[in-house]
Amino acid sequence: MPELMLTRQFIHDSKGNPVAVILPIDEYLLVKDILEELEPEVSKKLREIELAVQDPLFQLDLEENMKAFEKADTFM
Q1: How far is the CA of 60 from the CAs of 12, 17, 18, in angstroms?
Q2: Whole-model pTM above 0.90?
Q3: Rounded to an integer, what is the distance from CA 68 to the centroid of its chain?
């Protein structure tokens, strides 16, 4: 049976820009510690996004921006 050869697989968006990569496990293990160090920071940012929904200043700013683009959006 032939040996399985895995290589990095890049995932691209509809415009061809790379947005993610699938790594062979040996390459993943090389960066695993770095990714785990970043995870708390990413989790913190996601939590801040979740809390923004309840922030009255954020909501006011969001409404103002939606009104500002309301007319421009009708042309699309």
Answers
A1: 35, 34, 35
A2: no
A3: 26
Q: Give CA–CA dist 5/24, Å, rounded.
A: 9
* pLDDT at residue 65, as a whole number: 86
Radius of gyration of the chain (CA): 21
The amino acid occupying position 17 is N
Amino acid sitting at position 23: L
- Three-state helix/strand/coil letters over the chain: CCCCCCCCEEEECCCCCEEEEECCHHHHHHHHHHHHHHHHHHHHHHHHHHHHCCCHHHHHHHHHHHHHHHHHHCCC
Tokens of 7: 């290589």
